[in-house]
Amino acid sequence: MEYEGLNEARELIESSSNVVFLTGAGMSAESGVPTFRGKDGLWKKFKAEELATPEAFQSDPKTVWEWYDSRRAKLRTVRPNAGHYSIAKFGLRKDVNIVTQNVDGLHKKAGSKDIHELHGNIWTVKCTRCSKKSENYDVPIKILPKCECGGLLRPGVVWFGESLNQKILSRSSEALSKANLTVVVGTSGLVQPAASLAMIAKSNGSKVIEINLNKTPNYGLIDLFLIGKAAEILPQMLSE
Ligand code: BJW
Ligand code: ZN
Q: Is any ligand 1 atom within 6 A of the Cβ of residue 34?
């Protein structure tokens, strides 16, 4: 299928040396990872405030861990899609940074470098007592998992009401300040502070392309909107 705006997008891409991809759940949709807010999204079945908050974990860590365990089990079976792979390949010929809200680790699995995971990674755990972070790939995970210090481990992700890792946020801002082109892919643009990054890129002089199935709150600021699936548009847009 020939997407409207594709030629213009390809021209912008080829004339840019430094490109940032800002990705959200729609990036992984074609891998079979559910999004949060779509019609089959995770928040249709589960209440965010009952699962993705520190208060929820404090009051019912078992339920929260069971939810993360089921998502980890699903993620264990999925692969990066053609969109992830095309960004990884593109990174071999341009200066590319990926600022992602996704916790699924699929950009890394596809071979990309310079990935900034704003909301953490579902394959990491953090101790609620000594704050030690580590990787953990157990599926199923032993509920409730404990740190060697005896403290309860929690998923290494960022919940509502929690601050993002400042180092990751400042590396993301630095990458955006250098970008000639920012490509926003598959995010509803509703969750802060990630949602403001496209605006920051724009005010730093970057051109902004957005790929999504629907218009988002970014629509007013972007230079070019491509409507469709990330896994189909990105390979066409980024091929040499
Ligand atoms: C496709 C497609 C295909 C589908 N191809 N496209 C200012 C105002 C109001 C509130 C706040 C504010 N500042 C901060 C807040 C509070 C809050 C917030 O933003 N709330 C809003 C919802 C109102 N933010 C926070 O709490 C953040 N922390 C923070 O700001 O700290 C400072 C602070 C502390 C205390 C008080 C105030 C400030 C932390 C946010 C953490 C978000 N965590 C989650 C869970 C992560 C762990 C996990 O996975 O379990 O992150 S929530 C969830 O949403 C997840 C996602 O990363 C995030 C964003 O979702 P995303 O990626 O956009 O997915 P969807 O589903 O929403 O959209 C998918 C899109 O793809 C859609 O547009 C589709 O059309 C499209 N799509 N298929 C292309 N094939
Ligand atoms: Zn510990």
A: no
